[in-house]
């Protein structure tokens, strides 16, 4: 067999196998309560939350470095309010624009306040003898993300 015949035979058989494959897509939940219970049953979850003006993809026990947060001390526990998305490996639930804090609870503990690496800015003007070196370290706050909790809705 020539190489072009082998390629032709392979591509035809691969197309046939690809068209015969069975889709193993899971059934979609009927409402948000069912979606939360499905996500809760998965072994690992994640959230997309806004903190200090930026969105972060977070999982439990993550260590997050954000620009310096004022008025917090080491050991303080922060409740994340703006949660945009909750998900697991198989399911994702997005808010419009955020998910209610009563449906998802995530806490972050302040681990430390630290500074970044030294940034050096060198300014110079040609032929004037002007040279200036500016050194700066940006302050950061490090947070440890706690577990993602889905409280059961209370039925009156």
Jot down its keywords:
4-stranded antiparallel sheet, 2 helices, 156 residues, alpha+beta, 45% strand
Give a structural overview:
- The protein is an alpha+beta fold and 156 residues long.
- It is 18% helix and 45% strand.
- The protein has helices spanning 3-20, 32-41, and strands spanning 45-51, 54-58, 63-67, 77-79, 83-88, 92-99, 105-115, 119-125, 130-136, 139-149.
- The strands form 3 sheets. It has a 4-stranded antiparallel β-sheet, with helices on one face. It has a 4-stranded antiparallel β-sheet with strand order 3-10-7-4, with no helix packed on it. The protein has a two-stranded antiparallel ribbon with strand order 8-9.
- The longest helix has 18 residues, at 3-20.
- The protein is flat.
- 12% of the residues are buried.
- The mean pLDDT is 87.
What does this entry show, briefly?
This protein is an alpha+beta fold and 156 residues long. It has helices at 3-20, 32-41; strands at residues 45-51, 54-58, 63-67, 77-79, 83-88, 92-99, 105-115, 119-125, 130-136, 139-149.
